[in-house]
Amino acid sequence: MTPILIEDESSLAPWAGCAFVPTMGALHEGHASLIRAAARSGRPAVVSIFVNPTQFGPNEDFSRYPRSLEADLVTCAAAGAAAVFVPSVDAMYPRGIAVAREEAERLALPAVATQPRLEDACRPGHFAGVVQVVTRLFELVRPSVAHFGEKDWQQLRVITEMVAMHPTQFDGLRIVPEPTVRLDNGLAMSSRNRYLAPDQIEAARGLSRALQVACAAQHPGTAEALMHGTLEEHGLEVQYAVVRSAHALLPVQGFEAPTRGLIAAKLGTIRLIDTMALPIWR
Ligand code: PAF
Fold it and tell me: 22 CB under 6 A from ligand 1?
């Protein structure tokens, strides 16, 4: 069935209590699996599509971020969305983007948004923008559950902690993680894969290969060295390739569980991230 298109936030009231999937559009199979999970929850699945300017840094890809609303609506319909909320910048930030950016800088963020020195270090201000837009979307949509992909693991942790910090503000909202969807060749689904030229796909596979190699390592330190080696063999410029505690995302001291491998690497100007749960080392 064709989902109802909501452009005006005053039409959101009937959707309170829904299963929510916030997105920036350019939807792919990873998003479709989030929408299907939301639709399976027994609540109406509501998707938002909004390319949030406040989570992009000055030298990032906000203006060229892929936008494909018509195709996105087809994906939403096929995956079982009941409604799609497509707010304007004015609806999201009534006092304008410049003021919104200043407001984002003053937000109190959970430790996992500032301490790990991962995305927080590579993309200063990014999580302030994410927390700001997700808070605004949760306030407007008022969902019971919200589904987020595990691929953006630090984002998932930040949002989970943010909701835990303010349980009354979000009215018992539950954050549900969903597994990363991969192509048969291992490449994690990402809207930014659209930037990859055909001959760059093989190099981009280096991220998932490096994580698989880390899974087979005998020790966290060895895992990190092997990840770096695999990424470099694929011609990728490593931003980080680390083993961290899965929740706080801090360096692991010994053989703690659970841990995750987390990678950010660049292929020219294209920045890719990926993550996997690592086995328990004994
Ligand atoms: O993961 C994303 O697509 C975005 O960061 C989100 C959560 C929709 C906020 O803009």
Answer: yes
